[in-house]
């Protein structure tokens, strides 16, 4: 909950706990009195798979998954209350008293087991970066290629940026005596499906790969992996294992469903079905999708990000023919996204804005349609974002 919401909840006599329960749609037999009556009919029966409130003004409800609405972001970092959620099963409730993190495998000299407090006592660092779902933008395979891909039909709200605080994974691997023959490191969640995905030892030893226990200065929220999650800057969202319970280090490639059947490029153009690693460079427009903005001069804002480095240019077009340069905010950290904006006065009616980012490594967001991949990953073609100017 951000400060504004806490204040709002407090001034309306809601405790934080109650606010969470109400948002989660939990039935509070009599306990809330008049507030319970404010919940729309029917809503009380649904028990949300998430812990945090997911009001429709902040999230597009996609079942287990919740897409953010970037038009709500006021700063560079996405408040925890607004951060998208991608869960393969319901958010587990983990008791830190019994919580253990195990580090094991053929490429460690001595398996170790750490409690939550053990982890909190280790040297830590802050990493400023985004997490993006590999399927962010997936719905555009359907709208632009006329060929829907399977999976959650995200637009561009399955990304969020935050300050993460935690222990370098390399430090924990050192404690276990990681051997020089290590090839792959698997991180496994404590959720019902025990979601797990490997990364190469080079990524595991990267100083910015951390085991995070705080997000934007708050205790890691339950929906975002409490008590501990992996942060793997630039890599596909799936590598940022939430509710981390086990780390396995092996001297050979680790093959699991998440790198052999899911999170692979699959389709007529991908014979060898490569497993995903890095995300793609993209940009998004922070306007309500198909929503209205007031008439008169307006600042149109957005975000741009690249796993390869800083964004150096964002071009935009309203008519799809003429391109101009937007103002791009200076990079705060090469692992973060950047904001951009331009000022515009449009006639009442329907409009489309397209944005195109370029990064410091010379990558430019493509205007050509991508090759189809069955599971709809890494869509990063420039798209037209529809909106209205009020009459
Ligand atoms: N244990 C576990 N970790 C997980 C997942 C999951 O379902 N279980 N989902 C992954 C996926 S696909 C993404 S995109 C990110 C989403 O992180 P968020 O929900 O904090 O935004 O978490 C990843 N880590
Ligand atoms: Mo994801």
Taking the alpha carbons of the first and last residues, their distance comes to 36 Å
The number of helical runs is 8
The second-level CATH architecture of the largest domain is Alpha-Beta Complex
Instruction: Determine Rg (CA atoms, Å).
Output: 22 Å
- Chain-averaged pLDDT: 90
Q: Output the helix-strand order.
A: HHHEEEEHEHEHEEHEEEEHEEEEEEEEE
- The helix-and-strand class reads alpha+beta
The CATH superfamily title of the largest domain? Oxidoreductase, molybdopterin-binding domain
- CATH fold-level topology of the largest domain: Sulfite Oxidase, Chain A, domain 2
Protein architecture, described:
This protein is of the alpha+beta class. The protein has two domains: 3-260, Oxidoreductase, molybdopterin-binding domain (Sulfite Oxidase, Chain A, domain 2), CATH 3.90.420; 282-389, Immunoglobulin-like. Helix content is 13%, strand content 30%. A five-stranded mixed beta sheet has the order 4-3-12-7-8. The chain is globular and about 65 Å long. 43% of the residues are buried. The model is unreliable at 1-45 (pLDDT under 50). The protein binds the ligand Nc1nc2c(c(=O)[nH]1)N[C@H]1C(S)=C(S)[C@@H](COP(=O)(O)O)O[C@H]1N2 and molybdenum atom.
């Amino acid at each position: 909950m951000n400060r504004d919401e806490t204040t709002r909840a407090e001034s309306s006599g809601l405790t934080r706990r109650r606010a969470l329960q109400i948002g989660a749609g939990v039935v509070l037999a009599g306990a809330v009195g008049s507030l319970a009556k404010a919940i729309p009919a029917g809503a009380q029966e649904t028990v949300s798979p998430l812990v945090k409130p997911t009001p429709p003004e902040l999230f597009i409800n996609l079942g287990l998954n919740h897409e953010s609405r970037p038009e709500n972001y006021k700063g560079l970092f996405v408040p925890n209350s607004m951060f998208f959620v991608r869960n393969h099963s319901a958010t587990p409730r983990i008791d830190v008293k019994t919580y253990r993190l195990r580090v094991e495998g053929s490429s460690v000299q001595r398996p170790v087991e750490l409690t939550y407090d053990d982890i909190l006592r280790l040297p830590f660092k802050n990493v400023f970066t985004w997490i993006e779902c590999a399927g962010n933008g997936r719905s555009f395979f359907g709208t632009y290629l006329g060929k829907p891909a399977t999976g959650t039909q995200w637009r561009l709200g399955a990304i969020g940026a935050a300050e993460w605080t935690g222990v370098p994974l390399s430090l924990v691997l050192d404690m276990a005596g990681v051997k020089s023959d290590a090839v792959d490191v698997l991180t496994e969640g404590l959720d019902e499906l025990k979601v797990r995905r490997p990364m190469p030892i080079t990524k595991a030893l990267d100083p910015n790969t951390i085991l995070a226990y705080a997000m934007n200065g708050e205790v890691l929220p339950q929906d975002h992996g409490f008590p501990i999650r992996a942060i793997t800057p630039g890599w596909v969202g799936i590598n940022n294992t939430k509710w981390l319970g086990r780390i396995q280090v092996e001297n050979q490639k680790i093959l699991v469903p998440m790198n052999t059947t899911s999170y692979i490029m699959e389709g007529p153009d991908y014979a060898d079905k490569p497993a995903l690693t890095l995300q793609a460079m993209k940009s998004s427009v922070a306007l309500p999708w198909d929503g209205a903005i007031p008439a008169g001069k307006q600042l149109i804002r957005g975000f741009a990000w690249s796993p390869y480095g800083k964004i150096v240019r964002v071009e935009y077009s309203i008519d799809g023919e003429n391109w101009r340069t937007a103002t791009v905010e200076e990079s705060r950290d090469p692992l973060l996204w950047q904001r951009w904006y331009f000022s515009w006065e449009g006639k009442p009616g329907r409009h489309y804005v397209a944005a195109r980012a370029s990064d410091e490594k010379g990558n430019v967001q493509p205007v050509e349609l991508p090759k189809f991949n069955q599971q709809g990953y890494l869509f990063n073609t420039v798209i037209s974002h529809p909106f209205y100017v009020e009459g």
